[in-house]
């Protein structure tokens, strides 16, 4: 299925996480989805490696999310307390397929 959307890939090396970390992370996820148009959010942790993927309809939504005051405070807390290091990548997704196929994405000849 041809689709245009964006993914933000957040990769981090974590320090010690605490209860506040999980509260803030859940709040940021809620805000992204409910107020800024995030389509989907998924995160995994293995040891001190964390990867979070968030999917967005456009770059403007990502920029608004990044500049939101509450998100900026969370970023500062992350740098100060929870993250040893992190990187953020923004990429455009131009095609998607899955198994089992979503009914809307079934195309003849793909």
Explain what this protein looks like in three dimensions.
By secondary structure, the protein is of the alpha+beta class. The chain contains 3 helices and 4 strands, in the order E-H-E-E-H-H-E. The chain is 37% helix and 37% strand. A hairpin with a 2-residue loop joins strand 2 (40-46) and strand 3. Helix 1 runs antiparallel to helix 3 (69-82).
Characteristic terms for this protein:
single chain; 110 residues; alpha+beta; disordered C terminus
In short:
By secondary structure, the protein is of the alpha+beta class. The chain is built from three helices and four strands, in the order E-H-E-E-H-H-E.
Structural topology:
Layout: E1 2-14, H1 19-36, E2 40-46, E3 49-56, H2 59-67, H3 69-82, E4 83-95
Antiparallel strand pairs: 1-3, 1-4, 2-3
Helix pairs in contact: 1-3
Helix content: 25-40%
Q: Reading side by side through the largest sheet, how are the strands ordered?
A: 2-3-1-4
Strand content: 35-45%
Mean pLDDT: 90
Total count of helical runs of at least 4 residues: 3
Structural class: alpha+beta
First and last CA, distance: 8 Å
Principal-axes shape call = globular
Number of strands: 4
The topology string of helices and strands comes to EHEEHHE
Describe the biggest sheet?
4 strands, antiparallel
Q: Unreliable runs, pLDDT <50, ≥5 residues?
A: 105-110
CA gyration radius, whole angstroms = 16 Å
């Amino acid at each position: 299925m041809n689709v245009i959307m964006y993914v933000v890939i957040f990769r981090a090396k974590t320090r010690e996480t605490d209860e506040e970390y999980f509260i803030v992370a859940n709040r940021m996820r809620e805000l992204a989805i409910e107020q800024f148009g995030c389509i989907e959010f998924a995160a995994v942790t293995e040891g001190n490696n964390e990867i979070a993927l968030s999917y967005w309809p456009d770059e403007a939504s990502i920029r608004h999310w990044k500049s939101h005051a509450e998100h900026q405070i969370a970023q500062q807390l992350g740098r100060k307390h929870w993250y040893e290091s992190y990187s953020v990548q923004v990429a455009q997704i131009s095609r998607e397929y899955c198994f089992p196929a979503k009914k809307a994405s079934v195309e003849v000849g793909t």
